[in-house]
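hey so i finally got around to running both of the ones u sent me last week. sorry it took forever, my laptop kept dying halfway thru and i had to restart like 3 times lol. anyway pasting them below in the order u listed, first the sequence line then the structure token line for each. didnt double check formatting much so if smth looks off just lmk and ill redo it

first one:
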Amino acid sequence: MFGELESYRQRPIPHLDIERQYKAGYRAWPIDPGDSRNQEKCEDVRNARILGANHYHRPDNPPYHVSIPGSIPELFLRKSIVEKLLRVDRKLRSNGLALFVHDAWRPAEIQSYFHDRWFPDYLRGHYPDWDEVQIMTEVEKYWARGAPTLQDIDPMSPPPHATGAATDLTLCTVRGDLLWMGTIFDDVTERAHPDFLERESGISMSDDEARKNRRLLYWLMREAGFQVNPTEWWHFSWGDQMWAKLASTRGDTHISAWYSVVNPLGA
């Protein structure tokens, strides 16, 4: 089934320990709001015939199992991001596969709900001996701090999904059957680190399949210019602060971000 894509599945994801360390403080990375790309409009990726369903809006969305209040059905991304995803999708479709988008632009209320309430409450229930510092340290590994409303977001320090330049996605068949990636989407544990399965030895056939599928997604997206969030195999971005800081990690260049907060709803 994978054809020419099999070579991507055989290429290990590099260990991302440096990226995980360097990710800290990414929201202080400079943004150039005068860059013309920051004026780009957003569009729903499904209008470009990329498959997807907003995970926070649909009720069949483990581990939540309920449509999150304030969520939206659309999957908005900046025009340049959609064009990049289309190139990846075309390469996949020539081999019977496709991209499947779980999340894109995210309302401020959703960001705050998970950062301030859902995930802290989850951690308190599972780790009753943790203090609040431990809880919020763990929260910040996976959920960016939000704001009460979009207007309250600092345009020089927006959550990645508020920029329309970050997306959560996976791979599927052209019929929409999701490929196995080793965890569900939003499994915010170390198992979600893109390189987690590269560090494991003696893994099961299920984990080996997931490792190969993660490799395929990682290398196709990297080839298209995206950076992966080093704690989430599904999160990729281009042009936002996390992308800019991680793109500057292993070289001498210092790249500024150009995408700031955007409101595709026009309200």
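and the second one:
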Amino acid sequence: MARVGYDRGVNAPLSITTADAAGVATIVDWAAAEGWNPGLHDAAAFHAADPGGFLLGSIDGEPVGAISVVSFGPAFCFLGLYIVRPEWRGRGHGLAMWRAGIALAGQRTIGLDGVVERQGDYAQSGFTLVRRNVRYGGTGGGVPDGGRGVVVVALTDVNRAAILDYDAGIFPARRERFLDAWLGMPGSHGLAALRDGDLVAFGVARQCRVGVKVGPLFADDEATAQALFAGFSAWTGDQPIFLDVPEPNAAARRLAERHEMSPVFETARMYRGEAPAEPVERIFGVTTFELG
């Protein structure tokens, strides 16, 4: 790990370094212990997105805290995985990690999905609330739905450039390295929808510590999103299934409710700097609360 900073906690010195791949895996394990239910193979995809974007705070060589600020180019980054291990809380280490993460962002706009009770803290650091994201949970099952006027295909059958371009029209920045890792991770199922040969939706379902999460689920319209989600639900079988929905997208909420899913958790989507103009009506499932 490369040393990037040094700060002092209340009772002991805290060394802040860049996490390597093994360190990111440790951070994701902490996220699981917090009940965040990460995917089984999230760590490798996260690290591939930005190998310099994950910080570990250690005391005498023992990791005690973390934060990620993953850069998606010169103008945008996303903050997540902000964790201090329970036995080390209340000593100032969280604030030290926070400051190091904000410094890592430089002049980029920073996005985050924060728990509701921390909105006030984030606002004090210059973050502005844009919307709620609501996690819906239910049980998979059913049969695939071919949709109306679209052809549902395996994501691997779609040209990579078309996927990257479609994603860049929705996510605030191009994220080729992340998508290359995310779309091909083990234990995942990717689908796309074509209309007259053009890509009009794509998504990924992945195995998590508990059940399956769908994300991203990007689509031009509700019927097309429904066609993909039905395929993901059928693939999930009788496991729990989760979809993180932007609250302003009424069509996405209807889709979740149609599949007898209910809200189980929510976050505050906030930005520091100029908030991107996201087409929320095409976001039926957020990719991941950790990386945006």
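quick thing i noticed on the 2nd:
The CA atoms of residues 13 and 91 lie 11 Å apart.
anyway thats it, ttyl
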